[in-house]
Write a structure and sequence with these properties.
By secondary structure, the chain is of the alpha+beta class. The chain has one domain: 60s Ribosomal Protein L30, Chain: A (2-Layer Sandwich), CATH 3.30.1330.60. It has nine helices and five strands; from the N terminus they run H-H-H-H-E-E-H-H-E-H-H-E-E-H. The protein has a five-stranded mixed β-sheet. The protein is elongated, with a radius of gyration of 27 Å.
């Protein structure tokens, strides 16, 4: 009696290791699902990890800078995350209308707010909350982290075009920018950590950019750009 033809068996059907490998894969998958379900999310550690990945895979111009060691890099991202968290909390408590832009390059972030929330309308006088904000910014810029420097840059919109040098001194935005820098210095913030100026844009909008920088990388060689 002739048995019916059942077709040739494939190598995978004859090889039992395929089943073993598949079982191991499913076991590992279940293990990582279990770890994820019991883990606790910590914002600071998440920001450190995201900042580290951003710095590693970013595509900047080929500037000649020294690479940070692993320990320095970890300390930098932890300090930058703490700096960002404290500044954000400061704005939420003093000027809740401020908007935070996405974090860039690990330690750089931007805050946008109505200028009249910082100053009295049409004047160079700070509001009460504006003075509280300056106190907090000065404290943040003064934090002591070995090898790191913290910066704040205020840019005020001055209309569609920037004024020429002869008339810029009378512009309200120019006087406000100067007052911002002077008041931060009066509150003890390091002069090298303060930048202020104007930009083309809506006169009612102020942008403050905060950055955490490695001091030994502040001096950048541009030799590779001019070769």
């Amino acid at each position: 009696m002739q048995l019916p033809f059942t077709g040739a068996r494939t190598d995978s059907e004859r090889d039992p290791t395929v089943v073993v490998l598949l079982s191991l894969y499913l076991l590992l998958l279940a293990f990582f699902i279990l770890l994820n379900s019991i883990s606790n999310y910590e914002e600071t550690r998440a920001e450190v990890a995201i900042g580290s990945l951003t710095a590693t895979f970013r595509t900047d111009l080929p500037l000649q800078v020294d690479r940070m060691s692993a320990s320095t890099s970890t300390g930098y991202f932890r300090a930058a995350a703490a700096f960002r968290r404290d500044v954000r909390q400061l704005f939420e408590e003093t000027l809740p209308l401020a908007r935070f832009a996405p974090v860039q390059r690990g330690g750089t972030f931007r805050v946008t707010l109505p200028a009249d929330q910082l100053f009295h309308a049409g004047t160079t006088r700070f509001r009460v909350n504006g003075r509280r904000l300056l106190d907090g910014i000065a404290d943040s810029l003064n934090r002591q982290e070995p090898g790191l420097r913290f910066e704040a840059e205020l840019l005020l919109g001055a209309g569609p075009h920037l004024p020429d040098g002869a008339t810029s001194g009378a512009l309200l935005e120019v006087r406000r920018a100067g007052l911002f820098a002077r008041d931060l210095r009066a509150r003890g913030a390091p002069p090298t950590s303060i930048l202020a100026g104007i930009r083309p844009g809506d006169p009612g909008i102020a942008m403050i950019t905060f950055a955490a920088r490695v001091e030994r990388q502040a001096k950048i060689s541009f030799e590779s750009l001019v070769r």
